[in-house]
Amino acid sequence: MQSAWDALDDTERATLTARLSTEFCAHWAQVACASPYWRRLMQRHPQWLLDLDAEPVALEAGAEAGDEDRFLRALRRDRQHAMARIIWQDLWGPERLDATLTALTRLAEACLASALDFGQKLLAQRHGLPRNEAGAIVPFAVLAMGKLGGCELNLSSDIDLLFVYGEGGQSDGPLPLDLGEYFQRLARWLIRALDTNTDEGFVFRVDTRLRPFGDVGPLCVSAAALEQYYQAHGRDWERFAWIKARPVAGDLSFGKQILADNLHFAYRRYLDFTALTGMREVKALMDLEQGPNSRNLKKGRGGIREIEFICQALQLIHGGRLPALRQHNTLAALAALRSAGLLTPADADFLESSYRLWRRVEHALQMVEDRQTQQLPDNDAAWQRLACALACGDPARLREAIRTRREQVHALFRDLLLEDPEPEDNPKKAELWQAAQAAAPDFDARTLLAPWQFVDSEAVWERLHRFAQSRNVAVRLSRRGRQRLDQLLPRYLDLCQGFSPPDVGLQRLLDLTEALLPHAHYLALLAENADFLATVTHLLHSPWLAQALVRHPILLDDLLSRQDRNPSLWRQELAAELAGATDTEERMDALRRFKNSETLLLAADFWTEGLDAASLGGHLSELAEVAIQQALQWAEADMLERHGSLPGGDGNSSTDPVPAFAVIAYGKLGGREMGLASDLDLVFLYDAADDGESNGRIPLSSSAWFARLGQRLIHILTLPTRAGILYEIDMRLRPSGQSGPLVSSWTAFARYQRESAWTWEHQALCRARPIAGSPELCQRFAQLRREILCRSRQTDALARDIVAMRQRIHATKKIPAGRFDLKLSPGGLTDIEFLVQFAMLSSCPTAPQLSEQHNTGVLIAALRDAGIWTAAQAKILEEALGLFRYSENRRWLALASRSVADTDPESGALHEAAEGVLRAWREILGLRAAQES
Question: Which of 43, 175, 188, 513 lies most in the core, judged by the most C-beta atoms within 10 Å?
């Protein structure tokens, strides 16, 4: 370094001498040992010794604008100057890695921006500005892929760039160009400005092979062509590359829009296990290229690429459903995967520390001669230099530590992502599937089928053979799809053994697989994820769920994300589903699909014990409310458009165009305890001037307007479409039942409840709850309900009415001998509900807080807490209610009736619970129960 010292003037020498501490000199020696390239820079530019700790990225090339040669020389000097600072600062210690990656990324971005600005001005001088047919400027963006896109650039890296412009048109200069050619010239100039190696060196090596169609494709593509390419030709490895795509120069807002438009090329809305296949294919080619003993720290075993593959594969699989995983940066992706529970804390910590070490080693290798290399040393001197750069005193220990950690990284990579061939415990599995594909229909398969104890082997063989020979399997299925069937079908033979009989299990597995054949990613989902295959098989034990999954296989990927289901987001999610609907039929279909989808997910959660019966009832009720509120919005909008609005209830014009109308939920919906088989008990109320008339093109009287609104709402809820009906509706609880008007005026309803309602109608009020419509009218209903429930009553007369109603039910609903009806048998659900309603109507005058509740289970606890029922009585009724609700929903999913035969295994527990309810009935009603027959 003597020549560098000699080149300094006296002032510079004095400045440098003042800095020559022991620490500075030791670091100087370390950097000079580690990087001959840095040493040469100091010899060539000794004044750079004075600002090694300054901000690394400070370009001056922009000041040279006007002379292309001077600009390009200045840009190269700026890059070299920045590299001298970055290398010096990087070797201060391992904690500098993040700062080094950031500085290198910022340097590349600054050089790109400066060069692009200069190139655009050059092009504009000769050819003008790029404009579309309307005369507007056409945007241009540079997208970075790879390490630059991930903000983790190497010390001597190339930069992967993709050039995109907005649309066609022509430049407006003296020599106009078609915009395709215009932007090609801009891209070529930019590459030459950065990549050309002169006596001043280069700025950055540029790689554009990640563009559409690679080397044979145009350097610059339009946004529309880019999107079309990915939709029609995009390959799995390009999805991996797209993870790191990031706009770095040009019109950044335009670049961000390109990313948004192509988001679903990389991140599919479903759980995408096809990403694993693509990654494995790329990895296999890489292993073939590198060989088993490669010294390449990037592409070899246990290297940088394997860590990136772990991150990127998990990002592609889950990122469509978990936006937090859509990280460009590897370290940020590791943190996100850890937070999402997709990597254990131990694995995430190990991968992070390994990645940091590999990047430090990579920088040390590249700073030697500013070469893009990841080859570990092959001689002692090179290992000594590497140890010096990493401040590791023993090169042999460093070599062993790297070797050991590479093996550990590779082992984790294999464990997480690579397929381990499963040992075949029974060759007959594969043999049976092969026979089904090749043998004649009359092939005697009894010997092959014998190990699985099918009840009807002949029928099983016929079904398996028909499946294998179907057009979708034998002709249309891709090679990869057949490979996945080769994985799945032998597994099915074991999985169906959990069914009784196994024939049913195999039938349902084959039915589902047939439904999945047009969607290859679902086969991958099952073939790649053994735990999920087991979960799906468990769901197929329910014939209701099995039929639903065959009808709607798209719901399979939702099942994996059911822990993310959030009912509070249903309105937002429904709005997104409805956004694409263009007419009434599409909207109604979309609403039904949304309800059916969420119902299936809730049912699956309940079937797999992820949701208890009470929670299921609450969620189903909330889902129905969301659907009814949406349907009411549509019905009101239709009425306003066709018939206009009405004056308010006082006869004056209402400031709200939607008049006072309310939907009141009774029964299980009102009590937030719906089951999978529940219909909706509804009552409609309105408040408007009796002599009012709507102001639309087809005016209606108030009563006719609201009657038509009620009819329209029921039509929306019950009309069968391609997606089925939304709900069955029961309106019999309105005043005067089926003989009364469909929609009741508020005045008539309140008068009826106060003066004419039967006891059973006040019982029904116990669970009644407003769920949609005018907030003011809903509030008035709640006040009326509280008034009625808190009215003083003769307890004995109330008990007699309830007992009489119970007797009428038993007289008209005969239960066959030897069976227990979960709802209607003595001690069943109806008895529990009647007990709660008796307690409410008799106790609300002295315990008015009870009137705030609607749910049967919540009310049992409230009656206990109020001292009205004993803890023992409440416990008996709570447990019976939970058991009956659980059994009711489980039997629905099994396509069984709610009437349980005494020979059924669950019958004993049900009868025991019913006996407890009957004891509570006698205790709570006391002598009044003696009036029962």
Answer: 513
The total of other beta-carbon atoms located within 10 Å of residue 289's CB is: 10
Would you state the structure tokens that stand for residue 36, as one six-digit string?
A: 């001959």
Query: For residues 176 and 126, what is the distance between their CA atoms, to the nearest angstrom?
Result: 8
pLDDT for res 47: 85
At 423 the pLDDT is: 47
Burial 589-604 (b: 16+ CB within 10 A, else e): bbbbbbbbbbbbbbbb
The answer to whether the CB of 280 falls within 8 A of the CB of 417 is yes
Q: Per residue in 235-264, pLDDT tens? A: 888 999 999 999 999 999 999 999 999 998
For residue 107, the model assigns a pLDDT of: 95
Pick the closest to residue 602 from 592, 593, 613, 591 (CA basis).
Answer: 613
Supply the DSSP string of 500-512, one letter for each residue.
SSHHHHHHHHHHH
Cα radius of gyration (the chain): 37
Q: Pick the closest to residue 828 from 812, 811, 840, 815 (CA basis).
A: 815
- For the chain, the first-to-last Cα distance in angstroms comes to 113
pLDDT at 564: 54
- Find, among 497, 429, 510, 506, the residue nearest to 469 by Cα: 510
Residues of the chain with pLDDT under 70: 1-10, 12-20, 57, 61-66, 270-271, 419-429, 439-441, 557-558, 560-565, 648-659, 737, 927-933
For residue 829, the model assigns a pLDDT of 97
- Please tell me whether residue 140 adopts helix, strand or coil conformation: strand
**AA identity, residue 52:** L
- Summarised one tens digit per residue, pLDDT across range 751-764 is 999 999 999 999 99
**Torsion of the alpha carbons at 330, 336, 337 and 339, rounded to the nearest 10:** 150
What the chain holds in terms of domains, given with CATH numbers, is 53-266 (3.30.460.10), 274-417 (1.20.120.330), 427-560 (1.20.120.1510), 567-789 (3.30.460.10), 795-931 (1.20.120.330)
CA 418 to each of CA 308, 386, 398: distance values in angstroms, whole numbers, following the listed order: 14, 32, 28
> CA–CA separation, 110 vs 196, rounded Å?
17
Is the omega angle on the peptide bond into residue 56 within 30 degrees of 0, that is, cis? no
**Is this model's pTM higher than 0.85 or not?**
no
- Fill in the DSSP letter of residue 581: -
Burial 785-797 (b: 16+ CB within 10 A, else e): beebbbeebeeee
Q: How many residues does the chain have?
A: 933
CA distances in angstroms from 393 to 25, 387, 388, listed in the order given: 18, 6, 7
Total H helices, total E strands in the chain: 41, 14
Q: How far apart are CA 173 and CA 130, in angstroms?
A: 9
Residue type, 729: I
Q: Say if CB 406 and CB 303 are below 8 A apart.
A: yes
Report CA torsion sign: 209, 213, 215, 219.
negative
Q: Under DSSP, is residue 333 helix (H, G, I), strand (E, B) or coil?
A: helix
Count Cβ atoms below 10 Å from residue 23 Cβ, excluding itself: 10
Query: 147, exposed or middle or buried, with CB in 10 Å at 0-12, 13-18, 19+?
Result: buried
Q: Which residues fall within 8 angstroms of residue 778, CB to CB, at 6 or more apart?
A: 662, 770
Confirm if 448 and 460 have CB atoms less than 8 A apart.
no
Yes or no: say if 436 and 486 are a contact pair by the CB < 8 Å rule.
no
> How far is Cα 853 from Cα 861, in angstroms, rounded to an integer?
11
Contact 912, 891 (CB under 8 A): no
